[in-house]
Here is the input.
Amino acid sequence: MKDLKMSYHVNKKGYYGEFGGAYIPEMLYPNVEELRLNYQKIMEEPDFKSEFQQLLKNYVGRPSPLYFAKRLSEKYQAKIYLKREDLNHTGAHKINNTIGQILMAKRLGKTRIIAETGAGQHGVATATVCALMDIQCIVYMGEIDIKRQAPNVARMKMLGAEVRPATSGSKTLKDATNEAIRDWINNPSDTHYIIGSVVGPHPYPDMVAQFQSVISEEIQWQLQEQEGTNKPNYVIACVGGGSNAAGAYYHFLDDESVNLIAVEAAGLGIKSGKSAATSALGNEGIIHGSKTLLMQTKDGQITEPYSISAGLDYPGVGPMHAHLFQTKRAEFIAISDDEAMNAGLELCKMEGIIPAIESSHAFAVLKKKPFKPDDIIVINLSGRGDKDLETYINHFNL
Amino acid sequence: MNRINQKLQENKKLISIYFTAGYPEIDDTVTIIQNLEKSGADIIEIGLPFSDPLADGPTIQASSTQALKNGMTTELLFRQLESIRKTVNIPLIIMGYFNPIMQYGVEAFCKKCREIGIDGLIIPDLPIDVYEEQYQTLFESNNLSNIFLITPQTSTERIHYIDAMSTSFIYMVSSASTTGAQSGFGNEQKYYFKRISEMKLNSPLIVGFGISNHETFTQATEYANGVIVGSAFINHIKKNGIDNFKKFIVNILNK
Ligand SMILES: Cc1ncc(COP(=O)(O)O)c(C=O)c1O
Here is the structure.
């Protein structure tokens, strides 16, 4: 899977430039080390690859279409393609990673799965693959998020997972992640932790990016078929922790003729105190075992972010993205709640697609940035909007 | 020789007490330290509170959250400790997560510790290889012992590496767990204590996590040089205040 070893990929020590590494307590060392020593080898085994690909095809429904959005293209005067991760089983890109990790867990002989979730998308994707493989599944979710995301809590339960409330700290995604890590400390031998994004200690960011890299792999051949070139001029993706963006960028990372745009949630505005725009507001530090950019006080206490979209409501970004930001390989743009909601509604009206609010952030870039008529732009439509209906209803008084 | 190593040479089983700075009240730090020394503690670990303490169980999480609410910061802790060496001689260790230390500046942090008279640091999420590459010289030039953890899952090879890197004692985590009080240890833990003590390491062993009473103290010190009490102490001050810790300590040592 990893055939390129160039500068924007992880290095042998687990760093992207100065970001990454594994800043973990000794209690986690054996678990993380076991994964580090085995993940690449396992991912390259022929039977792993074929099982992964079979499931992506027959269970997830891949390849996901690369759809030429004709009306949007006319309006914004560019060739706009949508990578339809929203059409995957469970409604988002998250399942690419959970399929990969459940197969990894099985090969490592693990019999118990834990995961964290914010909006519940990753929790649902994890509960789904655990049902598929008949493995015990425990999902940590902030007490506040459990109340905000009742339908996804019900889905996880129907799929046989146990949802445990995280009651510490601010009771949201970062605390759910802390609880999952604490669970792993307490259950070091039988448990695998399925992290939901390109965050956490090495090798997680690289492993998750590789599982998600199926997105850019498909974009290459799909674009070749439709445009006669395998390179877009721009790839645009929203960034919470950064997994859908990492997947959409992956095969283009070291080709600087492809412009990468990372879209963060500005919430009520970068300076409002209610924002999740990590690259603008954060600085270097350690969160969840990784050296990266994160939002924190001057004193190094991690702060609580805000976004209308629960999936972007994370106070850090993965180390790959911190590196892409620092080297200016990717352009980071912050989109407010209102801009995102309007862009989402526009996609509904013009292309007949209801996007997840996370993905709506990526579409709002069309209004912010001028493109040339023959620019080929791929927007990663990371998920569908069913889970967000209530937020759309409230926002637009539907 | 620093105060920790002097203490380790005394021929007795040691009791080290952890508390979270800024808890229960913001200004309790100095009083707690003075009263711990008077009450017979051998070493004190001052917890620098963090918003996201990954390795801690509910008791220390709650004390950290409260301490931060009370307004504790790294700067303030250093200010509170400024003249601590005028009143106490007990070995002092700061235990904190790496992010707040990074934000203060690792070098500035170490220098400040030296000025105050801190003897060692425990930073659970600073990996030993990063320490060796980037910070060892800095710590040593400021006379700070960096204290590493081992767990029942730590490999023999890694224990030898940690032993070689240690300049005072090894913090032996009693079981695969986050911090928290336990009432007794099982056979698995006793076997682990024995296995490690039979390795005849250069560094003394102090057992932490789960020490709460005389039984756990006795079980641990059969094989180790001492214990660290954290959650049980936090629970104690929550109920009984901070005036006198004699009974608390005597109950663990002798009862
Ligand atoms: C549809 C969708 N897009 C994006 C994200 C953000 O995560 P990431 O940045 O890892 O892709 C989420 C997270 O829940 C999501 O559900």
Q: What stands out?
A: Chain B has a mean pLDDT of 96.
